[in-house]
Amino acid sequence: MQAASAEFKKLRVPELVCLLRESIDKQQLAGDAPMDSTRKIASRYGVSPVTANRAINELVSQKVLYRVPGKGTFISANRSWRSLGARICIYPYQGNTNSRNCDPLLDLCYQTIFNLLKQNGYDISIISDIEKNDPRILKRTMQSADALILNKEFITQETLPLLCSYPEPVIVLDSPFVSENPFHQIVADFFPGFRKAADYFADLGVKELVIAGISDTQTHQFRRRLFRRIMETFHPEIRLLEDLTSNYVPYNYGDVCGKRIAAEYLKLESRPGIFSVSDYISCGILDALESTGLTAGKDFKLISLDNLEGRGIGPYPEPRLTTIEYPKVPLCEKLIEMLSRLLTSHMSHTEIIRVPADNLIIRSTA
Q1: C-beta atoms surrounding 55 within 10 Å
Q2: Secondary structure (DSSP) of 180-228
Q3: Helix segments in 47-103, DSSP class H
Q4: FRET label pair with 296: which of 38, 91, 200, 218, CA 20 to 30 Å apart?
Q5: Rounded Cα gap, residues 241 and 202, in angstroms
Q6: Which residues, in sequence order, are CB contacts of 319 under 8 Å at separation 6+?
Q7: Which residues of 182-221 are buried (b: 16+ CB within 10 A; e: fewer)?
Q8: Is residue 176 a contact partner of residue 219, using CB atoms and an 8 Å limit?
Q9: End-to-end alpha-carbon separation of the chain, Å?
């Protein structure tokens, strides 16, 4: 190890432990490299041999170092210790930018992320909209962080230059598709679940189909396009009608938009199957259609996406929606695994992970 440039007086064991860890990490010393002797450490940092030895023992217990009897102390080849205590700045806000109407599912997702980060010993800091909208403040925040976890809303023309020049890991979560931005990404892959839903409509004998969603959100637009392509490719025998959509509203959008879509559905001459890209609007659709005397599963078939009811979110005493489960827990687990790799291996390439949403849950609406 290189000699310290400053003088250290009356260092305590915890302080010396931190200094030694910082020195090892800063110099990027290879695994299995020999550690300086207790005598050299004591001399360099101006501490007693007893203090130096206790600091070495603590680093051994932290698995930063390991001892080989008769040969000495060495730096551990397992670098996972480097991520302990890392400061992770996260921007969790979701939903419509103006209303901040946060989706319960996404809120659950970020709560899971927070819990997993804490369990893994990370120091969590929330990025606010003030930081997002002021490059000077954001720059200071980034300088104090070891990694950033962001969502697609954070990537703007104002933040992109700073993020591209940021030397530490940037992970983008909850983008509806893999973006061209040069960041690590974790994306839910809806193709396998959408394919199962398409096949199930065909098995039910559905002859016509409409796709429902919010018209002015990027996520819903992508999901609608993807499902339409799957239907056209694998089940051209099913006639696809024009999508039924509603503009976003800044209050209870699931109920309001769902009922607007149901009103358009009732104008159709037939009762085609419905694929809804969100459980929120599916509940509004279901309520509005059944209020007219129609019965889900009999008079119309409805398949949705999210499985909110399986997470305890829904207006019905028992889950009703046939739905594709959004892979919340697997996404969060993959995020923690990726973060650990990025913090400990200093990867130079961009990593993209697709987490399959492949669980189609059959309930009474189809």
Answers
A1: 27
A2: SSSSEEEEEE-HHHHHHHHHHHHHTT--EEEEEEETT-HHHHHHHHHHH
A3: 49-61
A4: 218
A5: 15
A6: 309, 310, 361, 363
A7: ebbbbbbbbeebbbbbbebbbeeebeebbbbbbeebebbb
A8: yes
A9: 66
Distance between CA 101 and CA 248 in Å, rounded?
Answer: 11
Q: Which residues of 231-255 are buried (b: 16+ CB within 10 A; e: fewer)?
A: beeebeebebeebbbbebbeeebbb
pLDDT digits (tens, 9 = 90+) for 123-167: 888 998 888 999 999 999 998 888 999 988 899 999 999 999 998
* Residue 93 pLDDT > 70: no
Both structure tokens of 253: 């959008």
Q: How many CB atoms lie within 10 A of CB 305?
A: 27
List C-alpha distances in Å: 247 to 11, 243, 256, 268, 308: 63, 13, 10, 20, 22
How confident is the model at residue 2, as a pLDDT? 46
Structure confidence at residue 240 (pLDDT): 98
Closest residue by Cα to residue 161 from 141, 146, 128, 139: 139
Three-state secondary-structure class, residue 154: helix
DSSP H or E run through 18: helix 13-27
Count of residues making up the chain: 366
Structure tokens belonging to residue 298: 């009999």
Q: Band of the pLDDT at 115, cuts 50, 70, 90?
A: confident
Task: Give the tens place of pLDDT for each residue, 199-237.
Answer: 999 999 999 999 999 998 888 999 999 999 999 999 999
